[in-house]
């Protein structure tokens, strides 16, 4: 699902994305606040790009996202330790911070 470059604002939407979603691009919008912990339930997600928004706080635990191959979180205001995000994870692919 590609929602990039749509000038979307406010908190990350709580709409029901299908759990079989493989790509989620929400980059280059104006989302604010934290990334919801439910994002970790998308075990089929291969690509998650939340870059170039106004997200804050810590990244949720994504260790259950076993299909994740690319995570892009650059140009936000995330805080904390990335190690805890990947606890118990076999993620060894591409991370763009």
List strands and helices in order, with pairings:
Blueprint lengths: L8 E3 L11 E3 L4 E4 L13 E3 L4 E4 L12 E3 L4 E2 L3 H4 L8 E3 L1
Parallel strand pairs: 1-3, 2-4, 3-5, 4-6, 5-7, 6-8
Concise description?
This protein has 97 residues and is mainly beta.
What do these coordinates show?
With 97 residues, the chain is mainly β. It has one helix and eight strands. It has one helix at 82-85, and strands at residues 9-11, 23-25, 30-33, 47-49, 54-57, 70-72, 77-78, 94-96. The strands form two sheets. Strands 1-3-5-7 form a four-stranded parallel sheet, with no helix packed on it. The two termini are 21 Å apart.
Taking pLDDT < 50 over at least 5 consecutive residues as the criterion, the unreliable ranges are none
Please report the number of helical segments.
1
* N-to-C span: 21 Å
Cα Rg = 12 Å
- What average pLDDT do the residues reach? 86
Strand order across the biggest sheet?
1-3-5-7
- What class, by secondary structure content? mainly beta
The helical percent reads under 10%
* H/E element order: EEEEEEEHE
Instruction: Give the number of DSSP strands.
Output: 8
């Amino acid at each position: 699902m590609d929602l990039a470059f749509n000038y979307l604002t406010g908190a990350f939407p709580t709409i029901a994305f299908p759990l079989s979603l493989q790509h989620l691009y929400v980059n280059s919008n104006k989302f604010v606040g934290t990334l919801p912990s439910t994002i970790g339930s998308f075990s089929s997600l291969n690509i998650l790009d939340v870059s170039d928004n106004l997200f804050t706080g810590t990244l949720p635990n994504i260790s259950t996202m076993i299909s994740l191959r690319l995570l892009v979180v650059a140009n936000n205001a995330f805080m904390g330790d990335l190690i805890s995000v990947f606890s118990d994870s076999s993620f060894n692919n591409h991370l763009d911070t």
